[in-house]
Structure prediction request, 588 residues.
Amino acid sequence: MRKGNALLSIEGLTVAFDGAPQPSVDDVSLTIEEGRILGVVGESGCGKTSLARAVIGELPARGVIRRGSIHFAGRDLLSVSRKELKALQGVELGMITQEALSSLNPVRKIGSQFVQTLCEKMLVSRQEAERSAREFLEKMSCPEDILSRYPFQLSGGQRQRVLVAMAFALYPRLLLADEPTTALDSAVQMRVLKEMMALKTNCGASIMLISHNLGVIAQVCDEVAVMYRGRIVEYGEAKAVMTSPSHPYTRGLIGSIAYMDCDRNRKLYTIPECRDTIQRPGCIFYSRCEWCAEKCAHEPPPLRINDRGVLVACSR
Amino acid sequence: MKKYNRGTTVGGSIILLLLLASAFASSLVTMNPTASDLMNRLKPPNFSHILGTDHLGRDVFSRLVHATRLSVGVSVAALSVSIATGLSLGLVAGYFRGVIDSLLMAVINILLAFPGMILSLAIVGIAGTGLGNAVFAVCVVSWTGYARVVRGMTLSLKERDFVKAARISGSSDMKIIARHILPNLLTTVIVYAATNISSIAMQLAALSFLGLGAQPPAPEWGIMLNEAKGYISTAPWLILAPGSALVLMISAFNLFGEGLALCLNEGKRVGI
Prediction:
C-alpha cells in the first residue's frame, strides 16, 4: 500500500441494518489519498452503497454504524455536528447516487434545481451559476434547452448526466460515485469517465467509484477494493488486482468478463451459485469457492499482504 | 391540462360571480340591508323590492347580496386558517416524526372522535356565541383533514429519491421541506381545499342558523333562513332566496373542486 496523505480513511467500519442477520458492511478499512481514484467492486448487495452512504453521513433510516471510524481531511466524520456535516455535504463530499432516474424533483425545472444548488453551495451569483451549469451540461453533451425542462421531459440517460454534471460542478474534494454510468451508453460513459479524470487531475479531487463494470474500474482506478458480503476480500493497486487477481472471488469476477474476440465455443466462466446462506465461522466465500480447503470452513482467513503488495483475505 | 371541464367552468364562473357580488355589494344595491320599514312587511317580490321584504320590511335582495360578502369572506377566512394550521403541522410532524408526530396524531384522533357539528357546537357553547368564535370552532374541526393529508404525503415524499439526493447534497431540513416536499403536495391540498370550502361554508351557515354564529341584524344566509322559517307558508320567498344562494354557492364550490381534481390528475406528470 502506498502511504501518502490520506483524504479519507476508514477504519474497521461496520454498518448494520435493524433486523438483518449480518452487517451489510463488516469491518472495512480503506484509505483514499488526495487525487486518487478507488474503485469498489462486488456483486449486488455486497455493501458498496451502504459504505458510500456511511461516508457521506446519510444512511437509510434503519442503518446504524456499529463500530469503526471515518476520517475525512483530518476530521472525524462520525462525531461532527449535523451543521458541520451539512456544510461538508455537496461542497467537499459529493455523491452521485444510483437512483439518478428519480433523484430530481419532478415539479421543478432542471435549471432551477441546478442553479440554486450551485448558488447555495458555491456562494456564487445566479449568472455565474447559470454559466457554470451550462458549461458542465454541455460537457455531458446535454441539449441546449435542458435547463428549462422538467425532469419528466428528459430521458433516463439525460437525467443521469444532469446529476453527474451537478456533482462535478461543485468541485468536491471527494466524490462518491455510486454507479454513475449504469444508464448510459458507452459513448457517454466515456465522457463521464473523462470528466472524472479531469476532475482528478485538474482539481486534485479523490473519487470513490462504485461499479459493476470491471472494464471501467480497470480503466480509471488507481486502487481497487473488492467486496463480498460486506467484507473486503481483496484490496490493492488496480493494475496488480486486475492483471493477477489473488482472491478466488476476484478471479471469478474477472474471468467472467466476455470479450468481443473471445472463443465463442468456450463456455463463459461463472462463479458457482451460493449454496448456503447460513453464517459459517470460516471464510465467507467458502460455499462458492472452487479452491477451498478443509480449514477454510472453520477459520476465517486473515487479511494479509501478498507478494504483489495486495491485501487478500484468503488462506490459500 | 388542455381539456376543459364543463363543471370547472360553470363552478368557477359562479364563484367569480359571488366574489364580484361580495366585492361590490355596496354599489350593487343601494338599499340599507338592516333598515327596517314596518309599513312594508312581508311584501312579495315587486319592482322596488325584487325579492320582496322580510318580517321587518327589510329588502331581501339587498340583505342577500350583503350576506354573500359575509358568508364568502368568513368561509375563506376559516379555510385559510385551517390550511395554514394543518399544512404546517402536517409537514413538521410528517418530516420530523418523533414526539411531535405522536402528539399531533393523538390530538387529531381525539378531535375526529366527535362528529364535526357537535364539536363546533360545544366549542361555541364554551367560547360564547359570535362570528369570531364560530369561525374558530369550524377551524378546530377542519384543520385535522389538512394535517392528515399533508402528514401522509410528507411521509411518502420524504422517502423519495429526490429528497434523499437533496439531503446528500447538504440541503437543510427547512429547505428540503420548502423546496422539495411542499411543491409536491400543493396540488393535493388545493384540490382538498376546493372541496372542503363548501362544507366549511355550510357549517358556518348552520351555526348562524342556530343563532351561534353571526348575530342579527347582520345579513347572513343562516340568519336569514332562521328568520324566514316562521313564514314558510305565508311568505315562501323569504326562505327561497338565502336557501338557493347557499345551494348555488356550495354546488359551485363542489363542481369547481371536482373539476380541479380531474384536471390536476389528468395533467399529472407521468413517468416519475
About this structure: The longest helix of chain B spans residues 60-96. Chain B has a mean pLDDT of 88. The two ends of chain B are 18 Å apart (CA to CA).
